[in-house]
Amino acid sequence: MRAQITWFDVVSRGNNPQMKFGDVQVMRRDGSVLRGPVKGVRREGRENIIEVIWVAEKKTPQSEWVRQTPDPIVITFFEGQPFLDGNTIEATIPELGELKLFRKGEASYLDPSVVTGLQGNEVRQYRAWLYDIPLDSNWERIVNRVVHDLGAGGLASEYEQMQVQDEAAAFKGQTTSAAS
């Protein structure tokens, strides 16, 4: 059921730990798509700002996902009416296109392995974000979370565990280690 909400509601939901956002997706008017994991939602003056860990663009349905500048996607408060459709927030933003904010854990995520140009620290932050540990966590902590905490309980597939271990090996030398 689609319900009209306000941008105040959107920001409020984004700051609620039980209603965290997953990916944001923008279907632009030219047919291209932007997508990335939501780091946070906040309000500054009359603008709502959706901060992303990284954002990728797909220019056509046949093209590849390519990393874009990680600047936050800015949505002006008075532009577009947001609607709540289940746990997804949708809005038509005149200068951007069709925006969707997916609730974390309830939508597919854009796999970082299919995004050209992502840096090791962006992949690491994405994995930490996905598994609900601090974004500055090092690869060892992320692997432990996925393999031991989630893998033992059957919450992470064997494929997912291997993928995270491969990412850790590939990017270990490119990132600074944070406190584990």
Q: What gap, in angstroms, lies between the N and C termini?
A: 43 Å
**H and E string:** EHEEEEEEEEEEHHH
The share of residues in extended strands comes to 25-35%
Integer tally of domains: 2
Number of strands: 11
* Class inferred from helices and paired strands: alpha+beta
Which bin fits the share of residues in helices? 25-40%
Largest sheet: 11 strands, mixed
What gross morphology would you assign?
Answer: globular
**Average pLDDT, all residues:** 84
**Which consecutive residue ranges, at least 5 long each, have pLDDT under 50?**
175-180
* Radius of gyration, in angstroms, nearest whole number: 17 Å
Number of helices: 4
Write up what this structure looks like.
It is a single chain. With 180 residues, the chain is α+β, with helices and mostly antiparallel strands. The chain has 2 domains: 2-103, no CATH class; 119-174, no CATH class. Helix content is 26%, strand content 33%. The chain is built from 4 helices and 11 strands; from the N terminus they run E-H-E-E-E-E-E-E-E-E-E-E-H-H-H. Strands 1, 2, 3, 4, 5, 6, 7, 8, 9, 10 and 11 form an 11-stranded mixed beta sheet that branches. Helix 2 (120-130) runs antiparallel to helix 4 and helix 3 (139-152) packs antiparallel against helix 4. The longest helix is centred in the last third of the chain and has 14 residues, at 139-152. It is globular and about 45 Å long. The termini are far apart. The model is unreliable at 175-180 (pLDDT under 50).
